[in-house]
Amino acid sequence: MSQPNSADEQDAREWPLWEVFVRPSRGLSHVHAGSLHAPDATMAVRNGRDLYTRRNEGTSVWVVPADAITASDPDAKGAFFESAAGKAYRHATYYTRSEGVKHL
What we know:
Elements: H1 7-14, E1 17-23, E2 31-37, H2 41-52, E3 60-65, H3 77-81
Antiparallel strand pairs: 1-2, 1-3
InterPro entries: PaaB, PaaB_sf
Protein name: Phenylacetate-CoA oxygenase subunit PaaB
Pfam families: PaaB
């Protein structure tokens, strides 16, 4: 392993990785904007704002420690997401209209 070139690079390697989510305007969902290293959550929010928003485009920034995120395996998406196949009863079109029931 090579030695870092500066003290800043050494600090960045020791700081945790944060995932940054930005909400562009009220009513919209937060969207993943990117990742950054920061020593704590407060600094991660500030750096996330500086890196991933500009010209007042963001209304909210969320940061989450990357090691706190659990994700599905993209390579196993078929097996993971196809579980609903053959379960038509989950959709309203599966059911027929009952006789005598009003306002359906």
